[in-house]
Known about the structure:
Blueprint: H1 6-15, H2 17-27, E1 31-34, H3 42-47, H4 49-59, E2 62-65, H5 70-79, H6 84-91, H7 95-107
Antiparallel strand pairs: 1-2
Helix pairs in contact: 1-2, 1-4, 5-6, 6-7
Amino acid sequence: xxxxxxxxxxxxxxxxxxxxxxxxxxxxxxxxxxxxxxxxxxxxxxxxxxxxxxxxxxxxxxxxxxxxxxxxxxxxxxxxxxxxxxxxxxxxxxxxxxxxxxxxxxxxxxxxxxxxxxxxxxxxxxxxx
Length: 129
């Protein structure tokens, strides 16, 4: 897994990478009000107690500018086997920017997985494995 940005490391520790990625997709780049307690917040209903509690304890109460961390998200998506087109859709970057981000990551020595081949499965055929 790629290095987690310091500003969301506490969230990843509390709720996991997948939950934080979904949160950043939904709220990245926005300013949100973070309440003092998470138990009555909308975040708890949407993303669970762990993420909402971590956000409230580290960034609240008050307003928080949610980071986008597009480069980190691109690396996470690639390591999960997504195609460049899927990553572009999820991050809002162009495919050219995705390729440039992956190239920069490789040049700095960050491990980047190759895209997983997507095999077409014929439902009429019995699986041998």
